[in-house]
């Protein structure tokens, strides 16, 4: 059953917290349900799981409309500014604010829909060309600009670390992200809370938790391998 796999992830998070002297209650597991049928989400929801991650606007809106009772939807993927209007009032958290342009559009639509949108700022520490996000040296300037936008509440940072065979190889990036997170928190920017540090996926979430992640995004570890041919 899916809940067994979800509970296995929760147990691994608990063990990682224990190793790091942290409280497991401080870490949220987002079940990344992209490409998976609504029936699997319903199965987990019926067992009390509430946080689900999607990386496509069309998939979030479809599942949002069809699910039998509300859950917390997390937008975790890169998306275009012209898609913002479709999800701005449907998501609990946007993890992937990777440009000031996108933040401005979220702000514009948030004001229009009369909602406050919690967001995370995506950081590309490893400067991988295949991934979006702000480079470290761009981050403070971007935060200053984004923090002044109405309708947006910056709740923290998000990182997609490099895909590595050995999860330990990403420890350096998780550690640096944690330091950035703390440094920004101490700056006391207006409208920037720094409550959430979203980092760690199926292959490296335990290391991420050891290094201070408060939110992990686990798909394959819960739902199994994805079939992208559909």
TrEMBL record:
Co-factor requirement: pyridoxal 5'-phosphate
Limits of the Alanine racemase N-terminal domain: 8-226
A matching Pfam family: Ala_racemase_N
Keywords of the record: Pyridoxal phosphate
Residues recorded as bearing N6-(pyridoxal phosphate)lysine in the entry: 34
Sample GO molecular function, one term: pyridoxal phosphate binding
CDD domains referenced in this protein's UniProt entry, alphabetically: PLPDE_III_YBL036c_like
Family: Belongs to the pyridoxal phosphate-binding protein YggS/PROSC family.
Protein function: Pyridoxal 5'-phosphate (PLP)-binding protein, which is involved in PLP homeostasis.
NCBIfam families xrefs: YggS family pyridoxal phosphate-dependent enzyme
Official protein name in the record: Pyridoxal phosphate homeostasis protein
Organism: Anaerostipes rhamnosivorans
